Amino acid sequence: MDKTKPIKEAIKKKKPSKELLNFNVFDSDDDEEDEAETEKHVVAEDDSDEETEKYHKPSDDLAVASDESDFEDEEDATAGGVQKITLNMLRQWELQLNKTNVSIDTVRQFIQAFNSALASISADNEGEQANAGAYKVVGAAAFNGVIQLCVLHLQPAIIRVLGVKPNSSLPLHKHKKWVKVRGCLRYYLGDLIRLVEQVSSSNILNVLLKHLHQMAGMVAPFTALGKSILKRLIVLWATGDETVRVLAFLCILKITRKQQGTMLNHVLKAMYLAYVRNSKFVSPNTLPGINFMRRSLVEMFALDLNVTYQHAFLYIRQLAIHLRNAVILKKKDSFQAVYNWQYVNSLRLWTDLLGATANKPQLQPLIYPLVTISTGVVRLIPTAQYFPLRFHCLQALITLSKETHTYIPVLPFIVEVLRSNTFNRKHTTVSMNPLQFTCILRLNKGQLAENGFRDEVVEQVCGLLLEYLAHESAGLAFSDLVVPVIMAIKAYLKDCRNANYARKLNQLLDKIQESSRFIEQHRVKSNINLELKDTQGVLAWEQQIRNKRTPLDIYYASWLKTHETKKRRQAAQSDDINADYDVPKLKRPAAKTGVPKRNEQGELELFPSDSEDDDDVDMPLVDYDYSQEEEEIEEPQPKKSKRKQEQKQQQQQEAPTEPADDYDEAGAAVDIVKDLDLNDW
């Protein structure tokens, strides 16, 4: 874990007050006078200080400071009833938490220390600091020790306090001793989610979310607290990094299962809205996160299909209303309400959900309205400009047809592309990079004129026809089904002047005709006299053909392997193409790093004082210099005399060169919670 990041990246907080910036409050002269006047127990000063001995004499029973208290003053401070946490105290707590018979008082004390640790970094005034509890956490070492103990030892200690047996299925709040830990546990869970909200480092979030996943069984009795925890987890699930998303989803799933009756409706609605909100823009960078959200949301909807039906019916109806408005009004705003990524990703979500629950009858009545909406979206603007959106909708329909074993008339929409006037025009522009429709819904005029547009359209047509017909190739009526497709491909080949396109479509046509003859031969050999009502007999015959595998099915399997290899090669070569053509890039200067300093006592100062240099305190992450942008783009500059150019080069050579800071190594921010051993998980 990187330990050099500034604290401002790890904790999102306001500027701390001046009272919190002075960690050595017990060393100031004013504090010594106040302690003498109130006659409270203070820490012994160094014996060499003669002036201090005149005004203060420690009591005989004063404990001697432990030599093991690293990064702390050599004191055992208990001023005003607030005890200062030392590393020695943390070691004793760790031993007590690991005992078989853990006392409830020890757990309560440790939860109070955790609350005080959070107060030390989030309190904005003296009032909040005074209400932090009976403990005071000073310094990074004590703060990290409290957090590490909580993450590693608190949950097993609570389990031992409750007396939970290894294979017990009884909920935790049903145990007898639950009443004793209920109050302090509520405060601890609230502080834990508050810490999760403040932390921005992915490494720390991973550790805290794993700990929260362990504590998920203890969230069930707290309904209001559970909603606030789930609300924050849904935000992390929708916007976090890859590992953070996965851990947040696992926490959501576990907490929701523990209290499914009261939380499922709330969670499904919040997660669907978060999915739609964060699927507005699709790019190669955001596509993996959107796919993860869709698949995990399908798993959440599958928990209770009776509850899911109400949500699915409502949201599919909303999609139908938007489509109806676009068909009736025919205005730009109504079209844009349908032809966008949020609408398409919603169709994908419900398609995946209906396909995943095909073996259960609750959601099957929604197949017909969803297919009607998808075909309506394809027909809304049937121009070449929206061919990418058409292919996305057709891919969803083919997936739905395969998963639910339902016949969906997709072939006419695929074949219609071959008769498009725009597609059959000769291209006027040659593009370097191939055009891919994965992250595109709409094409502009420039893209329609490129050769890459026609290449990708033919690739999509062949791929969709292969996928759909390979699935239907074992059907009893396959020979009759492919007659319109064969006629359309032959008509296109008569006018096709591109040898590459003709070769692909001829190869596809041969496999379709071969599979058609294969089905006809088996129908003759079997001498079947099946009626349309005999569903079981038709399914049995088709299963036999599927086990033998048709020529089209075999060809599709080999084509799919080649296609996946080609996609990987294109993704790997995208960076090489940019390098070959010297695409200009904007270089940003490295950030100045602010490494935490140590004071005279060896203590890490997490919050630098206002009196220090402003360059280390309020320096932005990246100090962008627009002059470098102009130099990298190499815009034409006015000519300078040779004498001035030589003087400038001489000054550059004489100037001392400083090594540039590497942001990933030296400039990465330090996590507020350090030294957490991830191997313990």
Describe the structure.
It is a single chain. This protein is mainly α and 681 residues long. The protein has a domain at 399-574. Helix content is 60%, strand content 1%. The chain has 31 helices and 3 strands. The protein has a 3-stranded mixed β-sheet. The protein is elongated and about 95 Å long. The relative contact order is 0.08. Belongs to the NOC2 family. One of its GO terms (biological process) is negative regulation of transcription by RNA polymerase II.
Notable characteristics:
681 residues, mainly alpha, 3 strands, 60% helix, disordered N terminus, disordered C terminus
| Mean model confidence by pLDDT | 77
Total of DSSP H or I helical runs spanning 4+ residues: 31
Q: How big a fraction of the residues is strand?
A: under 5%
Q: Structural class, from secondary structure content?
A: mainly alpha
What's the end-to-end separation, in Å?
15 Å
Biggest sheet, spatial arrangement of strands? 1-2-3
Indicate the overall shape.
elongated
Rg, rounded, reads 34 Å
Largest sheet: 3 strands, mixed
State the total count of DSSP E strands.
3
- The helix content is 55-70%
User: Which regions are unreliable across 5 or more consecutive residues at pLDDT < 50?
Assistant: 1-55, 60-77, 123-131, 575-640, 652-681
Précis, in short:
The protein has 31 helices and three strands. By secondary structure, the chain is mainly alpha-helical.
